[in-house]
Amino acid sequence: MANDWRPYVYGGLASMTAEFGTFPIDTTKTRLQIQGQKIDKNFCTIKYRGMSHALVLIGKEEGVSALYSGLKPALLRQATYGTIKIGIYHSLKRLLVQDPMKEKLINNVFCGVVAGVVSSCIANPTDVLKVRMQAQSKDTRKISLINAFRDIARKEGIGGLWRGVGPTANRAAVVAGVELPVYDVCKKHIINHTPLGDNVYNHFISSSIAGLAGAIASNPIDVVKTRLMNQRKLRVVSVQGGVGAPVIYNSSMDCILQTVKTEGILALYKGFIPNWLRLGPWNIIVSFKNYKRNANLTKKKTTAKRKG
């Protein structure tokens, strides 16, 4: 039913579980994506050689807890973003098609894009705070969530809480528009051309491949999103001494052009490995309940036909 509350609750819990389990990987992704910005003196050096090096170095220099810096706003984000996204996705699907066995891929993609864009826009403030805590680590871990939100609003205006909302919404749309069709194609191919059939192994393989496709398509947008969110656009009147922070990127396109010009085209794929490794398990954890639900529906349909 369209008014069923369970997709929202279960979706939020699944999203929070996946976020907690993959958060250290996400922290390395953020650190890798913001380093090497030649126009930003705070992040102009290349400190980390890759995901593994970042994990070891962060743990060694800042402590293991630094890998979980920003976890609170991340969980709050999934409690809103994950809950709204998965809830809207399933509710919208039921509005379009009542029978789950009659769902069409194009409808699911449409629902996924709408759910991703709406939920990411609503949860953007928590994403901004998460990225900044991951980037700064030591200085921000002691600040409470409420004070951190207030600090951003006071120094940057309410718009500071929605910094990078454009690429955030675009990324959500791209990920949904790519992962769902790839998952569907992979699943059907495995069913038709391998002995695995429609089982949990098929689900794991298809989810991992879909995560790879999503990472390839969305990583450039993710780099832009991370850099814009981490950039503090201070209002001059709110800064002590009357001096504001310089604007590094004026827009998403400006960020892309500046990044490619100063760091090369491959800079748009910084943090690709942790991005992929995070999306794969994340998809498996969050969507596993969908596999179980569909398996149960198929079993019921088969049983009903046999009885008939």
Automatic annotation (TrEMBL):
<feature type="repeat" description="Solcar">
    <location>
        <begin position="103"/>
        <end position="189"/>
    </location>
</feature>
<dbReference type="InterPro" id="IPR050391">
    <property type="entry name" value="Mito_Metabolite_Transporter"/>
</dbReference>
<keyword id="KW-0813">Transport</keyword>
<dbReference type="GO" id="GO:0055085">
    <property type="term" value="P:transmembrane transport"/>
</dbReference>
<keyword id="KW-0472">Membrane</keyword>
<protein>
    <submittedName>
        <fullName>DgyrCDS5773</fullName>
    </submittedName>
</protein>
<feature type="repeat" description="Solcar">
    <location>
        <begin position="6"/>
        <end position="95"/>
    </location>
</feature>
<comment type="similarity">
    <text>Belongs to the mitochondrial carrier (TC 2.A.29) family.</text>
</comment>
<dbReference type="InterPro" id="IPR023395">
    <property type="entry name" value="MCP_dom_sf"/>
</dbReference>
<dbReference type="Pfam" id="PF00153">
    <property type="entry name" value="Mito_carr"/>
</dbReference>
<dbReference type="InterPro" id="IPR002067">
    <property type="entry name" value="MCP"/>
</dbReference>
<keyword id="KW-0999">Mitochondrion inner membrane</keyword>
<dbReference type="InterPro" id="IPR018108">
    <property type="entry name" value="MCP_transmembrane"/>
</dbReference>
<keyword id="KW-0812">Transmembrane</keyword>
<keyword id="KW-0677">Repeat</keyword>
<keyword id="KW-0496">Mitochondrion</keyword>
<feature type="repeat" description="Solcar">
    <location>
        <begin position="198"/>
        <end position="297"/>
    </location>
</feature>
<keyword id="KW-1133">Transmembrane helix</keyword>
<dbReference type="GO" id="GO:0005743">
    <property type="term" value="C:mitochondrial inner membrane"/>
</dbReference>
